[in-house]
User: What shape does this take?
Amino acid sequence: MTDAHALPALQEIFNELLRGGHISTMQPTLYDALSRHQEDFTTLFAALGFRLEHHPRGFFYFQGELKGELPKSVRQMALFVYILIEHLGEQARDLEAEFFDTEFTLDGLPHAKKDRYVELLEDLDVPATPDGLWAVVGHLANFGFAEKLGEEGFRFLPPAYRFLEQCRAAAAAADAAAEEEEA
Amino acid sequence: MAARNPQRFFNFAAEHYALLEELLRFELITDAELLALAARQRKEYSASAESIAASLIELGFLEPAPEGGAYEMPLPVWRFLQYVREQYHLTSVRQIAGYIEELDDLRQRLEASIEQQQPAQAAVLLTAIADTIEQVRQDMHGNREKITNEVQAARANPERLPLRARYENIARIFTDYLSPMREIIDPTEPFQGQLDQLDQTLGRGAESLLTQPAVVEQCQRTRRRLTRMRQHIAADFHQAMLEVEPLYRAYREKSRAARGASLLLEQVRQHGKNALTASPQLNICRQRRGMLFHDLGVLGYAHAIGDADPHEVVRIEEAPGQASATDELLLVERVQRELREAGQVDDVLGWLIERLKGRASTGVLLRCLGDAIGELGAAPAEQRRSHHFGEVRVHGYVRRLQKDGSHD
Assistant: This one.
């Protein structure tokens, strides 16, 4: 193993990952350091009790613990993104492309347009107002899932694949259950 | 009613085919609409619009609708024109099952007429059986054609509809029309038993009604129809499956994210906000403090030392009455854990002071309070309160923690 002191940007990378951040090519210096010394970082972090994940879509993160309920900010982000994915599924020709290529603006979001969405958000203490939704965009940006564009725009970054994968996993489980029932 | 002249019927159809195609789009057509349509489609030197409209009714292309004041195309004409245009409609498996039930009923009556040696009755029943067999065959073939057309249209123009709608269309065909068709061709299903019995009855009829060669021939011909129907149904089913299944699976895969999002939203709607639980995709590391060493390199070595196998045990005694940094850290972690597990706490600061007084510094108290606010979302109430912590008086808004970790 390389001397831990010699690992580039170690403290910065560790702090970012420890607070739940995702390191993607948007942070080229950190991403490059992690990519070049992935094995050493993985070994060191494992010794500290953290599992470094390198997602095939090009980002790093620490896998959290698989127990207990999710922090409120994570649930707020998840709900916000699920609503957007459901909406894109009803409108988009290619969901994934539109999810990542669209520059979303607050006034174009579907969250305040259906009572069902408003109720779900309010249940998680997210007012379906521009300020309320912008606060969730702030969480998404803090964790590296999205990038803010000006005062009321944003776009998703590769780490947001984790939300898409969560949705796919839910549907795959339902499909498997349906197939089992048919069989 | 005067007898319809088939030759005039077909001549009119040939001369006014464009008009008939237009009429297929109408479920009901009023007098005014009919005249306007006839006038639009009328060729130079041909009959007037009024005359064309009258011929449509006289030849049976249109008949008065039950509502009155409008006309509709009779079902046999509509079906005939759709057949000619190779436009098919989907027949549900329930309808097909109805036909097979009908065939079974006819078979029982045919059986009785064979036993009672009633060839005239048998001939009538054989005609009804042959018609029903052909109906099933045509409907099943229509299903295959319709499914093929829809799949080709979906393939040729995938951007026509949003992803979700595309999946739902194909899924409807697959689950409503195609998948249940298995029942009809599956040899273990009752339908096959009914068709086997019909085949045997037709065979018996051909052997038992030998005095009536025409009826014997009818039995043999109907039996051949039955065999052909069964072969065609199996072939149509397999061809339709070949068309639909890959597209169904592809759309199902592509639409998974959107369908999953809807499923997860529905779970939250039904079971509340706590329905969103940890999963490999959504586990986000949330640790801010608790590091014993600030130097990661040293920390790494410290963990590596944990794997070392010492030759002898060395005990290091701590100075009595002096809390070490390690003790303080362990205390912070324990209090944080207890607070997390405590559920509802009406005054977080009071709760922490109870546990920490005499055991920790003000710095530790503030660190634990900071964690309760930052990590657990303890929120301020309107009430202010003062507490004593050793020599220090702490004054501020009461912070409250609710059972599910959320705040007011």
